[in-house]
């Protein structure tokens, strides 16, 4: 069995066992055991919410460093569209790209450029006969993993389109080989500059049978501090950027959905809202829609935990930058509009075990479900977290699965001790 490699880790020495994170984990993946947090690898979707809420910085994202790129002869940067929203008073995207060359990259391939092509093909995908509607975006890796673990019945609705990061990586590599025939594929290193740890997990683990074309993921935070010292203030800078408003728009919630040029869409952001929308889709309680864009972070990728700027300020900055851009700089040629190129598609979704499945068979799962309900009805129902589980229901599940003991419930234990004293 392949082990899923996560990008959100716990620093046990900093964890006080305060229980803050267990209340914010959307998949109930954290428990407090022996005084500190423990993450269940099968349930964790690398959303980074626990990093956001931990008051002691005990949770951290594991990303690469720029020096890791030194092993390659030809280094390519893939800046996420959200990178452009991080800088005070930035008036021109070209300053960021110029800065990336100055910090040591040999080429820059904007993910926003690839996003414009993905948008163009998404419009074709939506017109393809037989696709399950509403089509759900595949761009946010947290949402993809969440669907696989918690909403597997919606897997058919996921668009089989690679996210812009992957399309950019493939094309950047191809461009390098075309321009520099002396290079071999292994000489080329592709580095994604990421707003979130989930992208790093995607690169490490691939997706279904698909292996990522990205070699390193480094955080926007790390690159930001390198860039501000190098970015030019000169207005006569070369014209380097190859993106328009559509590509930059992908950095914020709603940007991908508006680029389908069809009003019949829904865009939701923030993990709680995402779960709510997926619940509604699963139960059929939404009106007919063509497309659903979901971003785990509030505001979209600008709200990722590896960014430096407040998401709402970053969004406002991007709004200003977009004003001076053409709608798109990347459109499909007429001969490309007949079908979707294989460069953009993935075949199979990952085969995760749904976390809602309790046992190895339906009968066993139903029995365990009944046991959980019965036990839960006897618990105090105040979701205090003192047992180390986020809710009384989660605690009941842990007990039924033999992952916790009933006496771990402090209230039940105190009541039992009192009863035995009273009976003496
Ligand atoms: S929030 Fe979680 S990881 Fe952070 S100190 Fe508290 S229990 Fe530990
Ligand atoms: S990264 Fe998200 S899913 Fe994983 S433990 Fe933290 S809050 Fe839970």
Question: Care to describe what's here?
Answer:
With 424 residues, this protein is of the alpha/beta class. It has three domains: 1-61, Alpha-Beta Plaits (2-Layer Sandwich); 66-344, no CATH class; 361-424, Electron transport complex subunit B, putative Fe-S cluster (3-methyladenine DNA Glycosylase II, Chain A, domain 3), CATH 1.10.15.40. Helix content is 36%, strand content 11%. The chain has 15 helices and eleven strands. The strands form four sheets. The chain has a four-stranded parallel sheet, with helices on both faces. The longest helix is centred in the C-terminal third of the chain and has 17 residues, at 362-378. The model has no long low-confidence stretch (mean pLDDT 92). One iron/sulfur cluster is lined by residues 10, 15-21, 32, 36-37, 54, 56, 58-59.
Query: Count the helices. How many?
Result: 15
The count of DSSP E runs of length 2 or more, i.e. the number of strands, is 11
Helix fraction bin? 25-40%
Low-confidence sequence ranges: none
Profile the largest sheet.
4 strands, parallel
Instruction: List each distinct ligand once.
Output: iron/sulfur cluster
Beta fraction: 5-15%
